[in-house]
Design goal:
The protein is α+β, with helices and mostly antiparallel strands. It has four domains: 272 residues, 3-Layer(bba) Sandwich (FAD/NAD(P)-binding domain), CATH 3.50.50; 137 residues, Elongation Factor Tu (Ef-tu), domain 3, CATH 2.40.30; 95 residues, Orthogonal Bundle (Arc Repressor Mutant, subunit A), CATH 1.10.10; 57 residues, GidA associated domain, C-terminal subdomain (DNA polymerase, domain 1), CATH 1.10.150.570. It is 36% helix and 18% strand. The strands form five sheets. Strands 1, 2, 6, 7, 8, 9 and 20 form a seven-stranded mixed beta sheet that branches. The longest helix is centred in the C-terminal third of the chain and has 23 residues. The protein is globular and about 80 Å long. The protein starts with 6 loop residues before the first strand and ends with a helix. 48% of the residues are buried.
């Protein structure tokens, strides 16, 4: 086959959230990069909820931003509602969420890709990969035209053998109205990658003017927006409300009386559904005692009358979706603009991947996003950045970039995927992160921007600001630990006005700040620094002081964790030669091929005794 004379360092297949971040990362590292998308009018599309973030997902967006990614900036630029979730809980689980104008998000992201140096954006459907000697060397599109590359990132979303289901209707599509990618799916199977099927879906869109809002509860944006990007300073779009309603017994009855017409329950759909974002059919069947379920009505943009209805995802025939929707109070006259649908698609079992997201079977081939069995724009974007960086490093001959579970939610997600795999669409949660107190949204830049600078992902000004903020936090922490508050009338009047006890003797300022009723305001009022500190510095100081004991304990846990992570298993380690392991454990270890004892300890079914056996064998091998 004659390849095109156009050669690239990195080719990214797919223009969704994973593909955008992968392409931008590789290009920003100085590599000649090509992003191939089936439809350039759908770059960074939001085919399901027009929103970004949420519990734990917001952490991923902040980490992508701290690493020089684009999702946070595009989200802030297109946000029509900012919300901070879990504010009544500790700072570890505070999470940002935005409702977005999906068209502005798409246009914003596409323009960034078009303007990015070293990056070319082209329309084309990749039909097959070109592999020579076990290494990918290029791709061929549906016209037979080829492109050469040193590394390829597949970020195909739901397009691999995609099937859209609406009742008895089944259409080959990657999303409603878009071509499915059947050739690439077949090619990947032929190359020996183990693949499965998953299912997701989206609810109907309703006409804004057909809703009776008097029967719904209005929810407005936060008065003070909390931005995703550390560089954002203002919200350019008007802030619009969302509305909450509830389904009725009639809603459930429409579904239960017509389950035989739902492809999810009549046997048409074979893919595994998302547990944490169930269709209404699943809710009706699996929660038979629940008469009512919450629905959230959200605008899809400032210049559209389409409203997204979270909670009403279904794949019923259109003629049944009408009474189904209209059974919800407030929706009695609702007009469906776009029906809901289910979609099933191929994914690759992620235990076949290295920590860099490179496939073990094909050198230079990286996978990112829903192809790895995940759900969500945020999970996709984080994997895209990770894969794009590592594809670039592969071409450059440098060591891969990997975060461990103590360094970021990205590290937790990738480790979960490659170590445990997934049989259902994977979603990130704060509960998945053992060290979440150290991996908060608010300190993502302090954790990761220095690493991004070393990789060439951020500019000098960005890393300078982070270094200055880190120094300011350290200086202010040191200062307040040296200050002692005396029981003066001014001090005690302030303390009692804040609902806490007065002082009888001198008390270190940091100990006063630890009190439940106190925030950094006690420092700013009773012992302010000579030069007022930035609000972000003040927030970090408050958290570090208040949670000092918990942080110290978590740091000790991280030290123990890192001990096992540092004990590496050599590539090609012979698990069959390890005496004392059961055949079942050997099979699991050979499938995952962990790179360290730490990763081995997280393989399903591995016991502390098995880790001890591995450690003894490793020492014996190293001593020979």
């Amino acid at each position: 086959m004659d390849m095109s004379t156009r050669k690239f360092d990195v080719i990214v297949v797919g223009g969704g959230h994973a593909g955008c971040e992968a392409g931008l990362a590789a290009a920003r590292m100085g590599l000649k990069t090509l992003v191939l998308a089936i439809d350039l009018d759908k770059v960074a599309s939001m085919p399901c909820s027009p929103s970004i973030g949420g519990t734990a997902k917001g952490h991923l967006v902040r980490e992508v931003d701290a690493m020089g990614g684009q999702m946070g900036k595009a989200s802030d630029a297109s946000a029509i509602q900012f919300k901070t979730l879990n504010t009544k809980k500790g700072p570890a689980v505070h999470s940002t969420r935005t409702q977005n104008d999906k068209n502005i998000y798409h246009r914003t992201m596409k323009q960034v890709l078009e303007d990015q140096a070293n990056l070319q954006l082209k329309q084309g459907m990749v039909e097959r990969l070109v592999v020579e000697g076990g290494r990918v060397v290029g791709v061929v599109d549906h016209t037979g035209f080829g492109f050469e590359a040193g590394a390829v990132v597949i970020a195909a979303g739901t397009f691999l053998s995609g099937l859209v289901h609406v009742g008895e209707s089944c259409i080959q599509a990657g999303r409603a109205g878009e071509f499915a990618s059947n050739g690439l799916a077949a090619c990947m199977r032929e190359l020996g990658l183990e693949m499965g099927r998953m299912k997701t879906g989206t609810p109907p869109r309703l006409h804004r003017d057909s809703i009776d809002y008097s029967k719904l509860e209005e929810h407005r944006a936060d008065e003070t927006p909390c931005f995703f990007s550390f560089s954002s300073t203002h919200a350019p779009l008007p802030q619009l409300p969302s509305f909450i309603g509830h389904t009725t017994e009639a809603t459930r009855n429409v579904v239960m009386e017509n389950l035989h017409r739902s492809p999810l329950y009549c046997g048409t759909i074979k893919g595994v559904s998302a547990r944490y974002c169930p269709s209404f059919e699943d809710k009706a069947v699996k929660f038979p005692d629940r008469v009512s379920h919450q629905v959230i009505l959200e605008p899809e943009g400032v210049d559209t009358r389409e409203m997204y209805v979270s909670g009403l995802g279904n794949s019923l025939p259109v003629e049944l979706q009408i009474p189904f929707v209209r059974s919800v109070p407030g929706f009695e006259e609702a007009e469906i603009i776009r029906p809901g649908y289910a979609i099933e698609y191929d994914y690759v079992n992620p235990v076949q991947l290295k920590p860099s997201l490179e496939t073990r079977k094909i050198e230079g081939l990286f996978l990112a996003g829903q192809i790895n069995g995940t759900s969500g724009y945020e999970e996709a974007a984080a994997q895209g950045l990770w894969a794009g960086v590592n594809a670039a490093l592969k071409v450059m001959g440098r060591d891969p970039f990997v975060l461990d579970r103590s360094e970021g939610y990205m590290g937790v997600m990738v480790d979960d995927l490659i170590t445990r795999g997934t049989m259902e669409p994977y979603r990130i949660f704060t509960s998945r992160a053992e060290y979440r107190l150290m991996m908060r949204e608010d300190n993502a830049d302090l954790r990761l921007t220095e690493k991004a600078w070393d990789l060439g992902l951020v500019d000098e000004e960005s890393v300078r600001q982070v270094r200055e903020r880190a120094a300011a936090i350290e200086a202010e922490m040191g200062r307040i630990r040296r200050v002692t508050l005396r029981p003066t009338p001014e001090v005690n009047n302030y303390l009692t006005s804040r609902g806490t006890t007065a002082l009888k003797t001198g008390v270190p300022l940091d100990q006063v700040l630890k009190r439940a009723q106190m925030d950094y305001g006690v420092v700013a009022t009773l012992a302010p620094p000579e030069v007022p500190v930035d609000a972000r510095v003040a927030r970090q100081v408050e958290i570090e002081v208040k949670y000092e004991g918990y942080i110290d304990r978590q740091l000790a846990e991280i030290e123990k964790f890192k001990h096992l992570e540092k004990i590496l298993l050599p590539e090609g380690f012979d698990f069959d030669a390890v005496h004392g392991l059961s055949n079942e454990l050997r099979a699991k270890l050979k499938e995952v091929r962990p790179v360290s004892l730490g990763q081995a300890s997280r393989v399903d079914g591995i016991t502390p005794a098995a880790i001890s056996v591995l450690m003894v064998h490793l020492k014996r091998v190293e001593g020979e």
